[in-house]
Design brief:
This is Beta-xylosidase. Helices cover about 30% and strands about 25% of the residues. By secondary structure, it is of the alpha/beta class.
């Protein structure tokens, strides 16, 4: 019935067009479909769940009402454990949550300077993850007030209209005593093993700090390297099989970042260890960040996916230049369209992409290119952290970079639900498409739309994610798309077509249709929650397979995303 209504609507729109503009030319009336070929016989290796990684600044949101709800939803969308990264796990304070702030009070000292360890809040955070089958990316930072070389001022109070640099206070400084810092790390890892078990903690990633090449670290690069040696030594003393890594620099394509990253990797390979005096340091995985750079151009948001991909590619290039490190797991610790999740749309109009489907289509298109970039550089990408979570008790759809607002899922979360259905191995996608990973990296998407696909298969299922993305968030006609899936080992397939666009899987548009209520009623909230789930475009249907090929034709709106799931017996 829904499909029939859509056909009638399309027919109605065509009739209105005739009445207003007169007859269309043949070319205008029947635009040539974008042809996408998916070849199930061309295997590209495992479909690594690089998307199943999330993070956020405010660790105390983890166990609050909407935080727990969202973590449950994230855990359910994936058939593999989701990895979660949060800042400020060692920051001094009472655990009060605020924008770009969090604290656990894990370390304080008595009047004589003796350490006092309190893992109550840290445990509360990690318990929330473990209960949902999630894996912590245990970020070792930031500096407790009692250990900071410049402890005052320590607690900052930041809001979206404030200067970003105001957040870098006493928690960002090196320790006044590296041995006390090392003992803190040792005690944390030891406590974790006692609480969760050796096997569980072995599955975590222990990383040092965040973006030490900018304000998050008020020491020198050499002081960070020294801190890393003391940290890695402590982790390995507590649990020799634990995984430890870094350096979490931001923007490797930036010269200062590349210099920092190379200095760190040079030390790991051939430097003199500050703790042992031996050559090199333990390194089990490598981390860096990559961000885009949206702007407002002629009154509309213009994204810059190319910048993010260039950061990623440069990071891969740097890692690949170290023969002994090239095959280490790489985690892009933050991988996003821009840099500040808590910078809301009302103060930062370039972030107006976040509530609607532009964030969805950007996510689909950019993640597909991360696979291609890793393959081209021959490196081992295991995860790309989406730095987006939720912000408790904020106005509805304020325009934060988040996955949900007041407990209601936003369209972007449905892309990850789509990814969660893509299993098995990646397969080849081709047929004269306007963009490949290299062109998006070098030029971004400024000419025609990027209409492309990512596909996977297992024994009895194939999935094809198709997006219609453009850097410019301006209206454009929907595009006809023709997907041909080759190598299907059956005579018919069941097709389920999931969609994210203005009508489907979109709580934001539903909220606007309600009149954008500032305080939705319980009935409205229930309706928004339903609209926030991933939805089918129409009823599942069986289609014939001819010569091992299945043909699927549909229209895809600008900034829309489709997932085609084909199942056979």
């Amino acid at each position: 019935m829904r499909a029939r209504i859509h056909r009638l609507l399309h027919a109605g729109l065509y009739t209105v067009t005739l009445l207003i503009h007169g007859p269309l030319s043949a070319q205008e009336a029947q635009p040539k479909p974008v042809a996408i070929d998916v070849d199930l016989a061309k295997d590209k290796g495992p479909m690594k769940p690089i998307w199943a990684w999330f993070g956020y600044d405010e660790p105390n949101y983890t166990y609050m009402k909407d935080g727990k709800k969202l973590l449950t939803e994230i855990s359910k969308l994936s058939k593999v454990p989701v990895n979660v990264r949060a800042h400020s796990l060692l920051v001094t304070g009472d655990g009060t949550a605020a924008l770009k702030w969090g604290s656990t009070n894990a370390y304080t000292e008595d009047k004589k300077g003796n350490p006092i360890y309190d893992w109550t809040i840290v445990d509360k955070i990690f318990d929330t993850y473990i209960e949902r089958g999630m894996k912590p990316i245990a970020q070792i930072g930031f500096m407790p007030e009692a250990l900071s070389t410049k402890p005052q001022p320590y607690r900052h109070n930041w809001s979206p209209g404030d200067k970003y640099n105001d957040i870098y206070t006493g928690w960002a400084y090196p320790p006044k005593d590296y041995k006390k810092w090392s003992e803190l790390v040792y005690q944390w890892v030891t406590h974790s093993v006692q609480r969760y078990g050796k096997q569980e903690v072995e599955s975590w990633y222990w990383e040092l700090w965040n973006e030490p090449n900018i304000g998050y670290w008020k020491g020198t690069p050499e002081e960070y390297i020294k801190l890393y040696d003391y940290t890695a030594d402590a982790v390995k003393r507590a649990l020799p099989t634990a995984k430890v890594g870094g350096p979490e620099v931001t923007g490797p394509a930036w010269e200062v970042s590349e210099k920092f990253m190379r200095a760190f990797l040079d030390h790991v390979v051939s430097g003199t260890n500050y703790v042992t005096g031996k050559t090199g340091s333990p390194l089990d995985f490598i981390t860096f960040h990559a961000k885009g750079d949206p702007k407002v151009v002629n009154g509309a948001v213009q994204m810059n996916m190319g910048k993010q991909l260039r950061d990623i590619d440069k990071g891969f290039e740097i890692v690949a230049s170290y023969p002994t490190l090239k095959q280490l797991p790489i985690i892009i610790g933050e991988s996003d369209p821009e840099g500040c999740a808590a910078c809301s749309e009302d103060f930062h109009p370039q972030n107006a992409y976040r509530n609607g489907t532009m964030y969805s289509s950007y996510t689909a298109a950019s993640f597909a290119r991360k696979y291609d970039l890793a393959e081209a550089r021959g490196v081992n990408l295991v995860g790309a952290v989406t730095w987006a979570f939720e912000f408790e008790d904020q106005p509805w759809f304020r325009g934060f970079r988040d996955l949900a607002t007041n407990g209601v899922d936003k369209p972007v979360l449905n892309v990850f639900r789509m990814f969660g259905m893509m299993e098995g191995n990646r397969v080849a996608v081709s047929n004269g498409l306007a963009y490949d990973y290299a062109k998006v990296r070098d030029e971004s998407v400024r000419k025609g739309a990027d209409i492309n696909a990512l596909a996977s298969k297992n024994a009895q299922t194939a999935t094809v994610m198709v997006w219609n993305y453009h850097d410019d968030n301006v209206p454009a006609p929907a595009a006809p798309v023709s997907v041909t899936v080759k190598g299907v080992p059956a005579t018919k397939v069941l097709v389920e077509h999931y969609r994210i666009d203005r009508q489907f899987s979109n709580s934001y548009e539903a909220w606007k249709r309600m009149g954008s209520p500032k305080s939705p009623t319980a009935e409205q909230v229930a309706e928004l929650e339903k609209a926030g789930q991933l939805q089918l475009l129409g009823s599942p249907e069986w289609i014939p397979v001819k010569n091992s090929q299945a043909a699927l034709n549909f229209t895809l709106p600008r900034q829309g995303v489709s997932l085609l799931k084909l199942t056979w017996q």
